[in-house]
Structure formats: structure tokens, C-alpha cells
């Protein structure tokens, strides 16, 4: 064979090599798309918000006590929306943390494998119900029931929306907390049983303290879920901006405000159009904060064992 | 310390056991509450909406009169959007999952991608709506169309499919790869003929769960500006248009549309209680779709666990 010429077999191999490289590149691009998505989110929220903050000062945005962006006398106090978001999330957590944690302890420390086989799909279905259906449930089923117990409750309220939102995040807390408790080594439990502890005593005094950062992580991640929830609030909490800390009142949240604006017909580039991006940026920053704390807590408990 | 008498020890044990039993009851009660909510929700919608479960309800467009309003444009819209979503999300999600499990080198780039996917799964869905409004609707000029909605939901469920793919691949033992490569297969041939087929049931489960989530998503679709009152269907490929022309193969992707959750939202937020009945009936239909998809996923997973023995 003269030098410089490649045998057919070798050139076939070279072809194969290039094919492989091409496929790897395509697969890499698919994986990199997720980074592009994040960059896209940040770009679109920040660039529209820059237009917004060129017109409204950031101090007014954070300190004004009124949110009337579409009125002639426009005010842009995001705290009005943040208060609705925080109050409804708090109600949701007051429901979801006790119920979710109880289910997690029960599933991880008490239930046999057969109960778990039944319980897991129930929880999954509960978490898979579309939020618009939960919204319907909150407005037309839960609110009338709560009105019997609390006659002063208006037709739209943060309380009933938050309550249903709590039911929605129970499965989330239950499954993350159960994971954390199952990660606690059996030897710790056996030690406690050997000392004569009952199951409940072991769960409360041994397993929970050992899994504490994991439990905390599940709560924090649940908060970020609640803060980002939209449809339940848009349907059942009313959409009037209302600076309040009282769950018995109707109020708009960051998310339901975005829905309200998007339902109308706002021209691209108007101040109303820009407000939803400023609101979205605020929402993203709040959820990001909770997520970072949550991930950090989860990483911490994983390292322990 | 004085040692306890036998009676006292028995009493302590009995008290501990009683508390255990009480807590067990509490745990079962909490689970039963969850089940009760699901059942109550379905029953409430089935009973309230029962008078709308006629063929007309599925074949009529939305209307000002509650009794004549139907969900034709909504369910057709939901199916078409799901079709676009699946078409975009499945190949991308599986490709990304295969890359991260089988190809990715352990370097900072891979780590960035992994952290990024974990964080994307936690981004509120309405933020995806804002992304789509800015990028798909205005910058790419897709408008308020089925294409924009389908791609938005595809981005939303991509992390679910990626994670499911990775978990399914991770469960395949290394000997499969080694065997394939030992007989001279390239990396891609190993993936194409072994890894992906064996991971298929797991991937499919993830895809179904992702689509079940997407079909119920409302917020991002409202944000990109889906209409709530649509009295026509997107043009079917190669059929005559009202203006005399013929619809192209892909004209339907740019058509305005509505989907089931938006129709429900619209009916729920009307003050006239007659529309509550419609909302209940449409909610029941949506729940039936979501439950059927979830049940299919659960069943697939169950079968998978039973059948696969390496």
C-alpha cells in the first residue's frame, strides 16, 4: 500500500468516528438547552424589568403601599402583592407541614410495605391534580364549607385558597420528608429500640432529629412551591390588590396579578406589560432564595451518613 | 434510682404501645384525608356536572348560553398542544438524559447542566409563561398559537423527562454496556440498541407523568395569551378554508386556540352559577384525562418492577 492512502476499513472506522462525534454533539446540545432556558428566563425578565425600572424608581417599587399600575393615578408598590403571596403561603404551610410530616413519619416508621404500595399512588394522584381543578374546589366547595364555620368569610379569601394550596403541597412534603427519614441509618433506630423505646418515641427523639435538615429542606422547598402557585389563587383569592396580613380577606398575589394582566389585552411594550415582568422577576428571586436554602439543607443531610 | 417493679415496666410499655397505636391511627387518618379530598373532588364535579355529560357537550363550541356551551375547541386544543409538546420534549429530554448518563465527562460544564436542571424543575410555571411571552410570542414571532403553547409546556416538562430517563438508565447494569462494547459496538450503537430500549418503560413513565402535568397547566398558557372564547377549530391539514384556499400541512400550529384548563378557568370565574355546571363537567373530563394518564404510569412502573430481572 502506498503511503498517504487509507485502507477502506480504516476509512470506514474514521467515518464511524465522525458519526459518533456528531451524535455526541447533538446530545450535548439537547442537554445544554436547559442552560439556555435558564439564560432565556433571566434575560427576558431582566431586560423587560430594566425598561420598567427606568420609569419607576426601585425605592417606590419596594416601599409604596398601593398597587394600581393600570389606573390613571398609578402606584407600583410590589409589597401589596408580596403580602398576599406570603399570607396565602403561610396558610398553606400551616395545613401542609403537620399533615405532610405526620404522613411521612407514618410511612417511614410505621407502615408496612403493603400500606406504602397503596399510599404512594394516592399521594402521587393528589399531587397530580391540575391546579385549576384545585381552584374550582377552593372556590365552589371549600369556601362554602368554611363560610359555615366562619360566617364573616367573604366569597374570595386567602384562607380558602391557602387551605387548598396546603392540600396540594402535602404530597410534596410527605415524599421529601419520608426520603430524609429513610436515609437515617437503621442502626440508630435499633439502638433506640434496644434501650426500650417505643416506635413513636424513637421517631420523635431519634429519627426526626437525625433527619432534621432534610425535613427543613422539604418545608423550604414547599414554600417555594406555594409562592409560585398561580391558579388556585387566581380563582379563589380574588384579584384585588390588597395590602393585608389577614387571611380572611381577598387579595391579589404576584402570580394572580400576572394572570389578571395576561387575560386582558395589553400592548407589547406598555408599562402594564412591563409590570408583569417586574413582578415575575420578584417572584423568581423569592423562589430562588428558598430553593438555594432548601438545596443547601438537603446537601447537608446527605453528607452526614 | 429505685428499680422499677414489673408492674411499672408493664405500664410504661403499655403506654408506649398505646401512643404508637394512636399515632398510627393519626397517620392513617391523614392519608384517608388525602384520599377523601380526591374522591370528594371527583364526586362533586361528577354530580354537579352530570346534566352536561351529553355528546353535545363534547361537540359544541363555547357559548354565551351555559346550557349550549361545549368543550369542542378546548379538548381539540389540548390534544394538539400535547402533540406539539410531546414531539418537542420527548426527543430533547431523552437525548439530554442519555448524554448526562452515558457521555458527559465529569467536569464543571456537566455540573452546571445538572444543577441547572434541578433548579429549572423548581421554577414556578408562570415564569415559563413569561419566558414564552417574551421569546416565543414576540421575539420568534410565533404569536399566540398552538406552537408557542406546545413549546412552552415542552420546556416545562423537560426536567421531568430528563430525570426519568436518567433514573431508568442508571438502573441498567454496567455489564450490558461492557458486553455491547466488547463485541465492537460504538458508544452510540450501545445506546441505540441496548440502553435506550431497556430504559424505555422508565422513560415512558416519565413522559406520561410529564404530559399529565402539562395537560393540566393553566398559568403559562394564560400568560402567552390563549383566548378563552374560540368558536372554530384549527384548520385540519389539506382541507378547504372558508376563504377558498386549502390549508397547508402545518397551518394548525399557528392557529389561535384554547385548552381545557383555560375553559374551566373561564367558566369558574363567571358570576352566573349556570356556568358552574359547565366548569364542573369540564373539570371532571380533565380529571379523568389526568387520572387515566397517572394510572397508566403507575401501572407501567408496577409491571416494570415485576418483569425486569437482570
General description of the model:
The complex is a heterodimer of chains A (305) and B (310). By secondary structure, chain A is an all-alpha fold. Chain A is built from 12 helices and no strands. Chain A has 2 domains: 8-55; 78-304, MetI-like fold. The longest helix of chain A has 48 residues, at 8-55. The mean pLDDT of chain A is 88. With 310 residues, chain B is an all-alpha fold. Chain B has 2 domains: 6-48; 53-307, MetI-like fold. Chain B is built from 11 helices and no strands. Chain B has helices spanning 6-48, 55-59, 72-103, 108-120, 125-139, 146-170, 174-182, 187-215, 219-224, 260-268, 274-307. Chain B is flat. The termini of chain B are far apart. In chain B, 46% of the residues are buried.
Strand-helix topology:
The complex is a heterodimer of chains A (305) and B (310).
Chain A: H1 8-55, H2 58-63, H3 78-110, H4 113-128, H5 131-149, H6 158-182, H7 186-194, H8 199-210, H9 212-228, H10 231-236, H11 254-263, H12 271-304
Helix pairs in contact in A: 1-12, 3-6, 3-9, 4-6, 5-6, 6-9, 7-8, 9-12, 11-12
Chain B: H1 6-48, H2 55-59, H3 72-103, H4 108-120, H5 125-139, H6 146-170, H7 174-182, H8 187-215, H9 219-224, H10 260-268, H11 274-307
Helix pairs in contact in B: 1-11, 3-6, 3-8, 3-10, 5-6, 6-8, 7-8, 8-11, 10-11
Tell me, what's the shape of chain B?
A: flat
Termini separation of chain A (Å)? 62 Å
The helix content of chain B, as a percent range, equals: over 70%
Q: Number of helical runs of chain A?
A: 12
CATH topology of the largest domain in chain A: MetI-like fold
Q: Quote the beta fraction of chain A.
A: under 5%
Amino acid at each position: 500500500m502506498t503511503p498517504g492512502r487509507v485502507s477502506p476499513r480504516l476509512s470506514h472506522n474514521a467515518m464511524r468516528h465522525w458519526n459518533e462525534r456528531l451524535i455526541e454533539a447533538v446530545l450535548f446540545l439537547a442537554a445544554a438547552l436547559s442552560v439556555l432556558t435558564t439564560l432565556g428566563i433571566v434575560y427576558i425578565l431582566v431586560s423587560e424589568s430594566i425598561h420598567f425600572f427606568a420609569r419607576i424608581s426601585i425605592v417606590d417599587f419596594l416601599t409604596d403601599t398601593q398597587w394600581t399600575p393600570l389606573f390613571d393615578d398609578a402606584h407600583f408598590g410590589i409589597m401589596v402583592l408580596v403580602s398576599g403571596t406570603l399570607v396565602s403561603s403561610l396558610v398553606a404551610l400551616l395545613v401542609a407541614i403537620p399533615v405532610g410530616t405526620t404522613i411521612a413519619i407514618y410511612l417511614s416508621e410505621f407502615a408496612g410495605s403493603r400500606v406504602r404500595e397503596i399510599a404512594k399512588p394516592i399521594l402521587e394522584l393528589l399531587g397530580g391534580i391540575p391546579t385549576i381543578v384545585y381552584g374550582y374546589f377552593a372556590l365552589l366547595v371549600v369556601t362554602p364549607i368554611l363560610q359555615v364555620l366562619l360566617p364573616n368569610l367573604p366569597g374570595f379569601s386567602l384562607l380558602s385558597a391557602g387551605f387548598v394550596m396546603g392540600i396540594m403541597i402535602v404530597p410534596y412534603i410527605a415524599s421529601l420528608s419520608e426520603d430524609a427519614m429513610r436515609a437515617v441509618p437503621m442502626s440508630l433506630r435499633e439502638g433506640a429500640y434496644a434501650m426500650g423505646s417505643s416506635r413513636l418515641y424513637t421517631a420523635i427523639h431519634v429519627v426526626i432529629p437525625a433527619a432534621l435538615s432534610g425535613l427543613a429542606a422539604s418545608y423550604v422547598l414547599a414554600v417555594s412551591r406555594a409562592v409560585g402557585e398561580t391558579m388556585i389563587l387566581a380563582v379563589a383569592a380574588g384579584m384585588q390588590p390588597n395590602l393585608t396580613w389577614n387571611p380572611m380577606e381577598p387579595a391579589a398575589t404576584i402570580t394572580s396579578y400576572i394572570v389578571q394582566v395576561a387575560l386582558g389585552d395589553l400592548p407589547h411594550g406598555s408599562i402594564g406589560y412591563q409590570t408583569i415582568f417586574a413582578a415575575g422577576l420578584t417572584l423568581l428571586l423569592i423562589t430562588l432564595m428558598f430553593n438555594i436554602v432548601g438545596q443547601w439543607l438537603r446537601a447537608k443531610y446527605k453528607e452526614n451518613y | 434510682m429505685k428499680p422499677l417493679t414489673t408492674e411499672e415496666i408493664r405500664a410504661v410499655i403499655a403506654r408506649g404501645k398505646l401512643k404508637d397505636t394512636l399515632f398510627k391511627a393519626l397517620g392513617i387518618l391523614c392519608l384517608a384525608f388525602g384520599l377523601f379530598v380526591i374522591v370528594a373532588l371527583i364526586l362533586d364535579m361528577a354530580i354537579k356536572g352530570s346534566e352536561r355529560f351529553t355528546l353535545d357537550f363534547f361537540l359544541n363550541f363555547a357559548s354565551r348560553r351555559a346550557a349550549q356551551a361545549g368543550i369542542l375547541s378546548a379538548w381539540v386544543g389540548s390534544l394538539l398542544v400535547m402533540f406539539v409538546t410531546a414531539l418537542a420534549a420527548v426527543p430533547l429530554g431523552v437525548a439530554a438524559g442519555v448524554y448526562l448518563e452515558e457521555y458527559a465527562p465529569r467536569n464543571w460544564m456537566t455540573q452546571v447542566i445538572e444543577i441547572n436542571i434541578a433548579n429549572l424543575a423548581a421554577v414556578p410555571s408562570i415564569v415559563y409563561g413569561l419566558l414564552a411571552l417574551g421569546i416565543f410570542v414576540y421575539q420568534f414571532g410565533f404569536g399566540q398559537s398552538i406552537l408557542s403553547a406546545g413549546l412552552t409546556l415542552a420546556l416545562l416538562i423537560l426536567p421531568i423527562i430528563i430525570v426519568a430517563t436518567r433514573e431508568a438508565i442508571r438502573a441498567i447494569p454496567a455489564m450490558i454496556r461492557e458486553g455491547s462494547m466488547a463485541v465492537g459496538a460504538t458508544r452510540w450503537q450501545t445506546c441505540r440498541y441496548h440502553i435506550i430500549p431497556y430504559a424505555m418503560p422508565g422513560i415512558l413513565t416519565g413522559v406520561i407523568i410529564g404530559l399529565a402535568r402539562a395537560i393540566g397547566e393553566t398559568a403559562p398558557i394564560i400568560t402567552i395569551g390563549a383566548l378563552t372564547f374560540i368558536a372554530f377549530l384549527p384548520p385540519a391539514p389539506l382541507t378547504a378554508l372558508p376563504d377558498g384556499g386549502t390549508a397547508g400541512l402545518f397551518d394548525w400550529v399557528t392557529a389561535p386556540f384554547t385548552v381545557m384548563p383555560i375553559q374551566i378557568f373561564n367558566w369558574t370565574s363567571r358570576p352566573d352559577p349556570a356556568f358552574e355546571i359547565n366548569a364542573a363537567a369540564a373539570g371532571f373530563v380533565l380529571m379523568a384525562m389526568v387520572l387515566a394518564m397517572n394510572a397508566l404510569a403507575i401501572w407501567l412502573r408496577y409491571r416494570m418492577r415485576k418483569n425486569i430481572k437482570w
